[in-house]
Amino acid sequence: MKKRQRKLISVRRVFDADNKGFIYTADLRFIILNMDCSIPRDELNELIMSTNLNQDRKISLQEFLSLLMPVKEK
């Protein structure tokens, strides 16, 4: 496992504090909107929905990593 991927897994654990193994899309949306990000809400929704491949409103570890890692590092 690459160093960047290990760091991202650690970050995900902050969002998944009770270790459910996923992050709800609503929680991720709230977090991103409350960071100083100037991403339009419709673009954020599109990003989250394209990441949540099985459309269960839960972002798994693999989906989370695919959201944050460039394609060449996967």
In DSSP terms (H or I, runs of 4 or more residues), the helix count works out at: 4
Instruction: Give the tally of β-strands.
Output: 2
Assembly of the depicted chains: single chain
Give the rounded overall mean pLDDT.
78
Helix content: 55-70%
Would you give an account of this structure?
With 74 residues, the chain is mainly alpha-helical. 57% of the residues lie in helices and 8% in strands. The protein has four helices and two strands, in the order H-E-H-H-E-H. A two-stranded antiparallel ribbon has the order 1-2. 9% of the residues are buried. Pfam families: EF-hand_7.
Strand-helix topology:
Blueprint: H1 3-15, E1 22-24, H2 25-34, H3 41-51, E2 58-60, H4 61-68
Antiparallel strand pairs: 1-2
Essential attributes:
single chain, 74 residues, mainly alpha, two-stranded antiparallel sheet, 2 strands, 8% strand, globular
Summarize the structure.
By secondary structure, the protein is mainly alpha-helical.
